[in-house]
Amino acid sequence: YTRALNATKLERVDGISCITKHAKSLSTIISGACDGEVKVWNLPKRECLRTVQAHEGYVRGICSRFCGTSFFTVGDDKTIKQWNMEAPGYGVREEPGQGTAVFTGIDHHQREGTFVTCGQVVDIWDEQRSSPIRSFSWGVDSFSCVPYNPVELKVLHRLASNRSIVLYDTRESAPLRKVIMQLRSNTLYTCDIRNLDVPVNVHMDHVSAVLDVDYSLTGREFVSASFDKTVRIFPKDKGHSREVYHTKRMQHVICVRWSADNKYVLRRDEHSAMEGQRLGEAWTEKAAANYNKKLIEKFQHHPQVKRIARHRHLPRDVLKQKRELREMKEARRRKEQNVHKHSKPGSVPLLTEKEKHVVAVVE
């Protein structure tokens, strides 16, 4: 009986596979699960606004239309589907669906009625047509994600399984540029698309693979989710994180989003408040939080206050892996210095940390 009960409980547990933000509403998010179910959530009220059985199998990607009236989903059943943000009226049926290939990601244009999907190729779709209006490919590798550039709206970025990053211009007939990295891209390199030979910054603190990243609304910071069971917040121009989140129940974090009001970080199906704020806090709690904040500002240079504010507690496993990585980097650095010292002058140059990560740039 106990085993049957546990098996039934485990059968009902379906992990969140992807999360996206509403294009217009600050309080609405959309999540997709491994069982093909998609839910629309209201964060302040903590309630589900709509539930849709969108796909058979994993929901691989979700994106909101730029006007916020509908959203698109892709799944393992080789279909792209468009859904209204609100449930249809009584007697009205939704019959979305198009596509005949396996899709791994989707993103919508911020001003036009077009969207892009990725899988074996990159396809650009018009909402009114059932076939792609343009397709791009470079090699035979599969693509994991293909977001639109938030500033240059005609530019696409694509991450591939062969350690490469490819740039596309929707106005061109061929890809623009391909950057081959030292390791498979883990979305923690800050690059300038005008000069891709060397990253602008390399963000280091995670001790395992980075699985997802999302920028804040201000663009000054971004949050990252990692296989090392931690969530970190990085300033865009710093190489190390300013904040780290972890709990005993937190396992491998596979997706993370920064809320549109710049106050919360959403990971999988839970939320963690930042800077002492919580959803729905009373005015007395706000007053106490403001009072504590002023106290910290007043005594911020006190040695004990400074030590506690600077310290970040980490799990024992993360500390152990961090120590091992530090020893490996030191050994690699000593080897490079010895090779440089005992080689012909100028034959073995010493590379900076930024120069080590890019193998080649292909036009």
Automatic annotation (TrEMBL):
Renumbered ranges of WD repeats: 29-51
Ranges annotated as biased composition (Basic residues): 331-344
SMART domains from the UniProt entry: WD40 (SM00320)
Compartment(s): Nucleus, Nucleolus
Family matches, as InterPro entries: Sof1, WD40/YVTN_repeat-like_dom_sf, WD40_repeat_dom_sf, WD40_rpt, WD_repeat_DCAF13/WDSOF1
Predominant location category: nucleus
Residue ranges, annotated region (Disordered): 330-350
Gene Ontology cellular component annotations, sorted alphabetically: small-subunit processome
The Sof1-like protein domain, residue ranges: 285-358
Pfam families: Sof1, WD40
PROSITE patterns: WD_REPEATS_2
Gene3D superfamilies: YVTN repeat-like/Quinoprotein amine dehydrogenase
Gene Ontology biological process terms from the UniProt entry: maturation of SSU-rRNA from tricistronic rRNA transcript (SSU-rRNA, 5.8S rRNA, LSU-rRNA)
Keywords carried by this UniProt record: Nucleus, Repeat, Ribonucleoprotein, rRNA processing, WD repeat
Family classification: Belongs to the WD repeat DCAF13/WDSOF1 family.
Designated name of the protein: Ddb1 and cul4 associated factor 13
